[in-house]
Each structure stands twice: as structure tokens, then as C-alpha cells.
Design goal:
- The complex is a heterotrimer of chains A (218), B (205) and C (250).
- Chain A is mainly α.
- Among the domains of chain A are: 1-65, no CATH class; 133-218, no CATH class.
- Chain A has helices spanning 2-18, 26-61, 67-81, 93-124, 134-153, 170-216; strands at residues 157-161, 165-167.
- The longest helix of chain A is centred in the C-terminal third of the chain and has 47 residues, at 170-216.
- The model of chain A has no long low-confidence stretch (mean pLDDT 93).
- Chain B is mostly helical and 205 residues long.
- In chain B, 79% of the residues lie in helices and 0% in strands.
- Chain B has seven helices and no strands.
- The termini of chain B are close together.
- The model of chain B has no long low-confidence stretch (mean pLDDT 93).
- Chain C is an alpha/beta fold.
- In chain C, 55% of the residues lie in helices and 14% in strands.
- Chain C has helices at 4-24, 39-54, 73-89, 103-119, 138-151, 168-176, 188-197, 210-213, 218-246; strands at residues 33-35, 57-63, 97-100, 131-133, 154-162, 180-185, 200-202.
- The two termini of chain C are 14 Å apart.
- Classes of the chains: A mainly alpha (218), B mainly alpha (205), C alpha/beta (250).
- Chains in contact: A-B, A-C, B-C.
- The interface between B and C is large, with 66 and 74 residues.
- Strand 1 (157-161) of chain A pairs antiparallel with strand 1 (33-35) of chain C.
- Chain A: The chain crosses the membrane at residues 6-23, 30-53, 65-84, 96-117, 137-157, 178-203.
């Protein structure tokens, strides 16, 4: 009985959300407000139960823990809670500065070691003797040329020419044009991937609707 | 200077964490682990504060005559019910699972389904948005990769020529993607640096 | 990790920092270089002016990445744009609204708006609820923006941050409500969706040009100049990598 009730709820919510395809309507609004409320409530419970209690409260209450060290995140957390008060919200800038500082270092590390170095190295791999074959070289050359022209496309600065404004040199413009071709092909390919992935989910939903009608219909 | 103490904290913490990535000394590594641990706690507290803020937005919408939105009541009810249940039983309790499987998952899957319709409609009206050869190429690429992705060329009797063409075709997006990713990495690097140099201070009030 | 890479990284960081400082200094004479025109930005500036004049709302959304994630650079750019936009439209009848799908981003959007109001000597007009979390999962975040698009008389949507294809929901709502949309993301799948669904998508690293084109500060223009210099360094490194590969030294 309970399972049937939950299935009915899932069925109604599915129809309510899909009804947005026709236009914004009350059923859709009810479905998404309920969904946002439930996911926010669940997430709040997870934050308290799986992060704040085990990582902050428990170490503070534990006699063996280095309470002194945990006093800093506790203080910063209290300062963050001051954001709930309009008058004291300025105190929250200190913990936010801490987070932004950590974030900046993580960004730089990710950009250099996660992307720049790995991608530059990957660009040379098709040319290595281990992979040397006519098709390997062709792959390498196309990838290298496409990557370079794509990078050139984004060149923001140009020379100030009287009467013409800011212009890039003709050969940069030429390479940028080729880069645009690679960008369009790339975005088209990604768009196709996104459509195929979402289409699979849509088919799953339509299948669920048909199954539910079969089950729920007397 | 705006918020000198906060700026000093951001620069100091950022530099220590960055140096720990560059020079793997044990003392720097342990400080980094400590800072990252604190960052997880602070991000969770920030998440809670923001959720309470979201709750207060909906609460105000019910009460305010100017911005009244009765649908906010569904948010409030859903939130209170799930949060209380989650805190009392624990978020991993079996009795909470139906809220996820019968509310969250169907709504999320249906929203993704809605996106399919949006994407197809957008592809059809693309030329109304951008009338350029780039749009034509984008659309052609989309159609070609939809066909490739659908697997219609992956049959036993596909000719070797088509297979070779498909191999080359699959390289092209890789080149553009690599160029875009490298560019984004350059932009990210400088964005991070501006924070560490105190040029950007999004935390200051 | 190779032992040479951290040293190379350190040198790159030092060189970039030095260049940033040097290029931020006010030039003695008008520089011979400038930023190429990008249509999306001139359209944005026009739409911002119209929005303030007509008393319609401006909505900026920052994505759903955490501030300590490697993908948060895009959100930091969104915050720079928010500061600039709040500064120019804070006295409007309908002040700008910032949304996000992550707690720390929400708090930063509130700080950014508050700072802009304070600099404009209009702190009494600041409302913390103009920096909002709309949902905690990517899809609830996207769904939470739909009522804003439909109900809040928004004429300009700026989407600057890290998000996925779910942003298509907001793009479609913006089209239905005839709102101007400028969108940029660091995610490739989101960029593909934005290209198909918005009139003014910014592709790839054009995202990082937003503060410079909105004339936020000389540091942002300098940053873009350094980015352009680095670009040629990367192109050189790509060629070098291929040469090293040929000789089997990679």
C-alpha cells in the first residue's frame, strides 16, 4: 500500500514537471517548490549529521582532541553564523576570506597541474615513437593545429589603428577564423552528447509514465 | 584598503596552501590538510546559513503583501518535514529513502527530460538567434555527432573508409576542447593570482 | 609528479604576478594596444542601461560550485561582474538579484552587493535577500531560478559561473519572457547548451574577459593582457611538446 502511494506521488510529480513543456502552471510550481524544499531539508540534515557534528562538535567534546586547534574553526563558524544578523553580518567576512584564500590556491594548482601541464604533455604524445604511425601523426597534427588556432581565436588584445579601432594582425585573424571552425565543431559535438544523454532520461520517464498508468489503472 | 584583516587572511592562507602544493614539505602538507579540513567545516556552516536564508526568503514571500507567493508554502512544508525527519532519524535512514526515490529522483529526471525538449526547440530556432556560418557549422556538427552517438554506423558491415572517417571526425572536437580548456586554465590561473595579490576581494564588505 | 614541474609552476606564478603588477601601473602615455570589440559586451552595457531606465530587474546567477573547488574561478568572475552591476544599478527601483546553488557563493554574493552599496553610500538600501540560494543540487538550483525568471520582471539575465546543461532551463525561461541573456561558463557541455539557447553566449575564456570589458578595474585589463601573453607561451609549449614527443623525450 505504502509503495503504491509513493509510486503515485512519483507519477504525479513526473506529470507535473513535464507539464512545463506547455507553459508555466500551478502544478509545475507546486512540484518544484516541494522538490526544492525537500532537497534543501535533506541537504541541511546531511551537513549537520555528516560534516558539522563529526568534524567540529565531536572533536571539541572529545577529551583527547586538540581542543585548542579546533577552537579556530569553531570561532570562524560562529563568525559565519553572524551572517544571519543584519547588524553583525560584517563579522562573516573573515571566514569567507579564509575560504576564498584556500579556493584561490586550489584554483591555481588545478589550472597548472590539472590542466596546463597535462594537456600540453598530451599534445605531444601522438608523436612519440611508441605511437608513431601515419594515423597517429595525422591525429597529432590535427589536434595540435586545432588547439593552437582555438587558443589564437580568443586573443583579446590588438593594436590601436587610427580610424579602425582595435585590430589584430591579419595572420592572427586568419588563424582565429580556423579556430572558430574547431570551436563550432566541438560545441556541436558536446551539444549532441548532451541531447543524447537527456533523451535517454526522457525515454525513461515516458516509460515510467506508461508503466504507472498500466499499474494504477483499474 | 577595504577589509585589511580579511585581505591578510585570504592572502596568507592562500599562499601557504599554494606553497604546500609546489614544495611538498611535510610541515606544509600537514598545514594544508588542516586548512582544507577547516574549509570543509566552514563550507558546511556557510551552506547551512545559506539554506536558512533561503528559508527566510520563502517565509517572507508568504507573509509579504507585495511579493506574496503562496507556492512558498510547499517549500516550507517540504523543508521542515525533511529536515526534522533527517535530523531525528539520520539522513541515511531507510524510512527517508522514499523521499529521495519518489520525490527527488522523479523530479530531477523529469527536469532533465524537459531539457531534451528545450534543446531540440533551441536547435530548430538557432538561426533566429545567430544568423551566421558558425551557427550552421554548429548545427551540422550536432547532427553528425547525434548520428555518430546513436550508433547507426557501428554495424558489422560498416566499410573501413567510413570507420576511418569516423576516427578522424572524433578527433576534431578533441582539438577544440583542448584549446578551450587551456584558455580556461589560463584565465583561472590569473583569477586565483588576483585573489592572492589582493587585487580582487569578493569577501570584503 | 615530476620534480621539474613544481619549479616551472613556481616560475610561471612569479612571472604572472610580476606582469600583473607591472601592467596594472598607470601607463605614462596612451597604450598602443587595446581590447578588441566583442558584440556581447556592447549589447550587455546597452541592456543594463535599459534595465535601470525601465525599472526592470537584473538577475545574475553564479553557478553551483563550491568556492574551494578548482572550478570556482568562473564564480569569482561572476562576483566581479556582480560588484560592477550592483554599483551601476543599486539605486534602481528594482535592485539586481544574485542567485547561486552553493552556500559559500551565496554569502559571497551578499558580501559583494553589500560592498557595492557601501561604496555608493546607499547601505540603507541593501537587502541581504537579494543574494539568494535557489537550490542545493544542480537541478534544484536551476529549477529555483524559474520562478524568478517568470515573476520578478527580469529583463537581463547574466549567467556567469560553473554549471552544467541544466542551465538550459533558465535560458528557455528567459526566451519565453523576452529577456536579454549573456551567459558564460567554464564547463564545455554548458557552453554547448548556451550556444544553442542564448543570443549572446561567451565561449571559453571569454568568460574571464567580463570584468575587463565591464571596466571593473585596471587590474582586470592587465590580467587579460597577461592572459594573452601566456597564450603564446602555451602555444610554444605545445609545439615543444610535439618536438619532444618526436624524439621520444616526453
Amino acid at each position: 500500500m505504502t509503495d503504491a502511494l509513493w509510486s503515485l506521488i512519483a507519477f504525479v510529480l513526473t506529470l507535473a514537471v513535464l507539464s512545463y513543456a506547455i507553459g508555466d502552471n500551478p502544478l509545475f510550481r507546486i512540484a518544484i517548490y516541494t522538490f526544492i524544499g525537500i532537497s534543501a531539508g535533506y541537504f541541511a540534515a546531511i551537513l549537520i549529521d555528516q560534516v558539522i557534528i563529526p568534524r567540529l562538535i565531536t572533536p571539541l567534546l572529545s577529551p583527547s582532541a586538540s581542543v585548542g586547534l579546533m577552537a579556530i574553526p569553531l570561532l570562524l563558524s560562529l563568525l559565519l553564523l553572524a551572517r544571519l544578523s543584519r547588524r553583525l553580518s560584517f563579522l562573516g567576512s573573515l571566514p569567507m576570506a579564509f575560504l576564498v584564500g584556500v579556493g584561490a590556491a586550489v584554483i591555481i594548482n588545478g589550472a597548472l597541474f590539472g590542466t596546463l601541464f597535462t594537456q600540453v604533455r598530451a599534445a605531444g604524445l601522438p608523436f612519440t615513437p611508441a605511437q608513431s604511425s601515419p594515423s597517429g601523426w595525422l591525429t597529432g597534427i590535427v589536434l595540435l593545429f586545432g588547439t593552437m588556432t582555438t587558443l589564437v581565436y580568443f586573443q583579446f588584445t590588438g593594436r590601436r589603428e587610427p580610424g579602425k579601432g582595435i585590430v589584430r594582425s591579419p595572420w592572427v585573424e586568419w588563424m582565429a577564423r580556423i579556430g572558430q571552425v574547431f570551436i563550432a565543431i566541438t560545441l556541436g559535438a558536446f551539444f549532441a552528447g548532451v541531447i543524447l544523454a537527456s533523451l535517454t532520461v526522457l525515454i525513461g520517464r515516458l516509460d515510467f509514465i506508461l508503466q504507472s498508468i498500466n499499474t494504477l489503472a483499474p | 584598503m577595504r577589509s585589511p584583516v580579511a585581505t591578510a587572511i585570504a592572502i596568507g592562507v592562500g599562499l601557504i596552501v599554494l606553497l604546500s602544493y609546489l614544495f611538498p614539505l611535510p610541515v606544509l602538507a600537514s598545514i594544508r590538510m588542516l586548512f582544507l579540513d577547516w574549509a570543509i567545516i566552514l563550507a558546511a556552516v556557510a551552506g547551512l546559513v545559506a539554506i536558512l536564508n533561503l528559508f527566510s526568503v520563502h517565509w517572507r514571500k508568504i507573509g509579504s503583501p507585495r511579493e506574496r507567493d503562496y507556492y512558498s508554502l510547499f517549500f516550507i512544508l517540504g523543508f521542515i518535514f525533511t529536515a526534522i525527519l533527517g535530523l531525528l532519524l539520520g539522513p541515511t535512514d531507510e524510512r527517508i529513502r522514499p523521499l529521495i526515490t519518489s520525490v527527488q529522483l522523479p523530479v530531477e529526471a523529469s527536469l532533465v527530460g524537459l531539457l531534451t525538449i528545450t534543446f531540440v526547440v533551441s536547435a530548430v530556432r538557432l538561426f533566429a538567434l545567430h544568423r551566421s556560418w558558425i551557427s550552421g557549422l554548429f548545427l551540422a556538427s550536432t547532427i553528425v555527432f547525434l548520428l555518430v552517438g546513436s550508433g547507426i554506423f557501428l554495424t558489422n558491415d560498416t566499410s573501413p573508409v567510413i570507420k576511418e572517417v569516423l576516427t578522424i571526425l572524433n578527433i576534431l572536437p578533441g582539438a577544440g576542447a583542448r584549446g578551450i580548456l587551456l584558455g580556461i586554465a589560463l584565465g583561472s590561473l590569473l583569477t586565483g593570482l588576483r585573489i592572492l595579490l589582493g587585487m580582487d576581494r569578493p569577501y570584503s564588505e | 609528479m615530476s620534480t621539474i614541474l613544481p619549479i616551472v609552476a613556481f616560475v610561471i606564478i612569479l612571472v604572472c604576478a610580476g606582469l600583473l603588477f607591472f601592467l596594472t601601473l598607470p601607463p605614462k602615455r596612451r597604450p598602443r594596444w587595446g581590447l578588441r570589440p566583442i558584440t556581447a559586451f556592447s549589447e550587455l552595457i546597452r541592456s543594463l542601461g535599459l534595465s535601470v531606465e525601465e525599472g526592470t530587474r537584473l538577475h545574475l546567477t553564479l553557478g553551483h560550485t563550491g568556492i574551494t573547488q578548482p572550478t570556482s574561478a568562473s564564480a569569482l568572475i561572476g562576483l566581479q561582474a556582480l560588484e560592477r552591476i550592483t554599483a551601476v544599478s543599486s539605486i534602481s527601483d528594482r535592485p539586481p538579484l544574485a542567485t547561486s546553488g552553493e552556500g559559500s557563493l551565496t554569502l559571497l554574493s551578499q558580501s559583494t552587493q553589500r560592498a557595492a552599496y557601501r561604496l555608493n553610500n546607499a547601505l540603507d538600501l541593501y537587502d541581504p535577500q537579494r543574494g539568494r540560494l535557489t537550490g542545493v543540487t544542480p537541478l534544484s538550483y536551476a529549477a529555483g531560478m524559474l520562478p524568478i525568471a517568470h515573476d520578478e520582471n527580469v529583463s537581463v539575465h547574466l549567467m556567469i559561473g560553473h554549471y552544467g546543461p541544466e542551465i538550459g532551463l533558465l535560458c528557455e525561461a528567459a526566451v519565453r519572457n523576452n529577456a536579454f541573456t549573456l551567459a558564460a561558463s567554464d564547463s564545455l557541455s554548458a557552453q554547448a547548451v548556451l550556444f544553442a539557447t542564448t543570443k549572446q553566449p561567451l565561449i571559453g575564456e571569454e568568460l574571464f574577459a567580463i570584468p575587463a570589458y565591464l571596466q571593473t578595474s585596471p587590474a582586470h585589463v592587465a590580467s587579460l593582457r597577461v592572459q594573452d601573453l601566456l597564450r603564446w607561451g602555451v602555444i610554444l609549449a605545445l609545439v615543444l611538446s610535439a618536438v619532444l614527443g618526436v624524439f621520444g623525450w616526453l
